[in-house]
């Protein structure tokens, strides 16, 4: 997927990306401070927002197979189960309830299968949202901070799930995260955003270790110290 | 006990039964049509941008503020024998009353649905896009997700419909067995100094209002319970 | 600023609608809800006389005409609420007013007999007429012909059906003629005041029974063309007597009995009786009421 001369104005904030290539089959990380344009760019890719100018070349990717999950995912006014099967329903696919039950058990949501989705905790809502997104086998997945409220165990489960799917199906991922360890463990490539612009793009190691850009350097240093503190 | 017996006696009186029937027929018909118009209009206003949209919203707000009796007068002038729609002979008929009620209730439902939609629909739309829903599926989903709010708007409209007096009196003419509603009957009975039947009708309206209020509240409560976790 | 604009817009909007229709409401067309009106007080009044009366005395404008004269002559400020005869008497019965002026002799005498009123004094009369389309009924003096024809030919007829003095008079005539009006399915009850009922009859091209005063006023003042004509007048059954009764101060000590007595003496005086006899002549070409105080009507 390639982004060419993408421009979007939202109030005083402007996104301006002359060129960005997201190699298919890779796990990409979008990093940068809050309000740097990561989420807006992701929304433009996911077709939630329409660009003012420029284009996004999907290179044969079906727009219905591009998906995105949010930090506070939208929960339908219905049960957990109905939420999970919604993408199947609109595709006229009959859900396999036994399979779904097994999945819910694995991710510790089975007890709450019949419960009203909006009554779940934020972490549970994020889990539900990830499962709901992956169930229809999308080819391009953007995960916008949807791993932020998970417990350590759940996080590990999902990290493994992402890597598994990645190996088996070779789909493209974009992870937006403030948690450096997630980026570190999962991503191949990272893209650094600041003030609505893409300022650095490249292999993870290259950006983290050898970047000459002062903004990237400050950010990485802070994150590494943060990581040390966490340990 | 005497009061209860008297109330039962009065209730079985054909006049009251007719007033209840006329009221319900009028309210159900006008609310059905108003809901259809108001929900569609509210959702369209939220979804599309077009020239004159702000004017339309302002006109709708203005209509919200117009006293029903003024609407009644306008409809009366329209339907008069020498008025522009005189040939339809709708004056002093239930149909004419329904027309007036639609003009009163549609703006209420429109503005309620519109303001709910402004708050809800963008998030639903974004979600639907990420799920790969078609345009049609997205529209259905928006309506489904606003189900409670839409019920609430309809219930509110129905409450207005049964409690309306001024316009109904003007356009309907309060003709016994035909266009006499519960409210116009109360107003007439009071003017005759007859209070028992008036009070009975009032109590009945109160019961209706209570049921509606309870229904509306239970929708809201469901919402609240759901959001509060 | 935006708010102000919105308000201006709103006013313009409503004004254009009203102006566009080129009609104005008939403020005096009788309404069945009670309306309180006060006369304009030129001198400082020494108190208020509260009257309940029938819609016809208000709809004809008689009270608006008499109240300032009454204030000047006696110093009492006359305020009234115009409702149906039934409620007018009920208000007297509850002690809510000081005096009652209405036109249903039997009910009035009953009111006095039960001790709610002091004494009934006849004041004036007007007459009832039947108005409606000139076809198929031809104008006649005989009420029996008209009512029989309405009933047998199933012609639209709008009755007030509100238990008012006029309504009672109409019912009494049907009863006297031994006709059950309800056998005609086009016999409707509006449950509203006289003015509303006449305009309704005009819209529906129906017949209706009205007092002459309200009829003349509506016919003259209505912004809408009234296509109805008098089809029956002059029958003895059509006479409409008004009486005035002071509410009994022994029953309700708080009522203003002095003002009530002043009003009765004043309205029955020769001078005021002459004023009543002249009322409406310049405007309608004929008097609306015939004074007859002191008679036995």
From TrEMBL, chain A:
InterPro entries with a match to the protein in the record: AAA+_ATPase (IPR003593), ABC_transporter-like_ATP-bd (IPR003439), ABC_transporter-like_CS (IPR017871), P-loop_NTPase (IPR027417)
GO molecular function annotation: ATP binding; ATP hydrolysis activity
Short name of any one Pfam family annotated for the protein: ABC_tran
SMART domains, per the entry: AAA
Keywords, in A-Z order: ATP-binding, Nucleotide-binding, Transport
Domain ABC transporter: 1-220
Coiled-coil regions, chain positions: none
Name the UniProt record assigns to this protein: Tungstate transport system ATP-binding protein
Organism of derivation: Propionispira arboris
Automatic annotation (TrEMBL), chain B:
Cellular compartments annotated: Cell membrane; Membrane
Membrane topology summary: Multi-pass membrane protein
Cross-referenced CDD domains: TM_PBP2
TM spans (from-to): 24-45, 57-79, 85-106, 150-173, 194-216
GO terms under biological process: transmembrane transport
GO cellular component term, pick one: plasma membrane
Keyword Plastid: no
Lineage top rank: taxon: Bacteria
Location of the ABC transmembrane type-1 domain: 20-216
Keywords recorded for this protein, A-Z: Membrane, Transmembrane, Transmembrane helix, Transport
Residue ranges the record marks as coiled coil: none
Similarity field: Belongs to the binding-protein-dependent transport system permease family.
Protein name: Tungstate transport system permease protein
UniProt source species: Propionispira arboris
Automatic annotation (TrEMBL), chain C:
Position of the signal peptide: 1-19
Residue ranges annotated for the PBP domain, each copy included: 46-271
Name of one Pfam family that matches: PBP_like_2
Keyword Aminoacyl-tRNA synthetase: no
Statement: the UniProt record of this protein carries the keyword rRNA-binding: no
PANTHER family referenced in this protein's UniProt entry, alphabetically: EXTRACELLULAR TUNGSTATE BINDING PROTEIN
Protein name, per record: Tungstate transport system substrate-binding protein
Organism: Propionispira arboris
